[in-house]
Amino acid sequence: MLEYFILIGLVLFAGCWILSPILKSNSTDSAIILKTDEALGQLEYEKKEAYAAIRELEFDENMGKISKEDFGALKKQYMLDAVHYLKKIDELQENKSKAKALGEEEIIDQIEKEISSLRHGGSSKQKDVFCVQCGTKSPPNRRFCSSCGAKI
Q1: Cα angle: 54, vertex 59, 61; to 5 degrees
Q2: CA distance 26 to 141
Q3: Are the C-beta atoms of 143 and 152 separated by less than 8 Å?
Q4: 68 vs 29, 73, 91, 124, 132, CA distance in Å?
């Protein structure tokens, strides 16, 4: 009988130990506990991911892969995520007593400008192109897709 209690205890301990990383919160609120530099790096990464998601969403909408209604809802959500990350970055960079409260419209305008500059400005290096048939990424100097052979 004692063996069963020990076995059950070990199984429960192992289960809790295995599930603990999964159950831990991985939100940006927990990043504030970390050192400021690490938290800023994480928030910058999350902000860039939100921008990339917006660009990918716009690409999918232009390709006709997503409806206008879904596009509007998803873009709004990604924009709000980016606003959240920008606000967290501002809170960490500035002293709380000196922090200015920016309106969401100003931040959304800032996001739009950054996305526009990334889309149009970028670097002088030519960007990769994608096949219209299969979606494979190809260097800009190619005229035919290496995967399906379609003209790019």
Answers
A1: 95
A2: 42
A3: yes
A4: 32, 9, 34, 32, 21
Going by C-beta distance under 8 Å and a sequence separation of 6 or more, which residues neighbour residue 60?
Answer: 66, 71
User: CA–CA separation, 20 vs 12, rounded Å?
Assistant: 12
Q: Would you say 127 and 140 are in contact if contact means Cβ atoms under 8 Å apart?
A: yes
CA distance 129 to 149: 14
Q: Which two tokens stand for residue 118?
A: 């990334």
Mean pLDDT of the 2-21 span: 85
User: Cα(46)–Cα(84) distance, rounded to whole angstroms?
Assistant: 10
Residue 29 has pLDDT above 60, yes or no: no
Per the listing, tokens 């200015």 go with 100
Compute CA distances 137 → 48, 89, 140, 143, 144, whole Å.
21, 33, 9, 12, 11
Quote the pLDDT of residue 96.
40
Q: What's the burial of 136, exposed, middle or buried (CB within 10 Å: 0-12/13-18/19+)?
A: middle
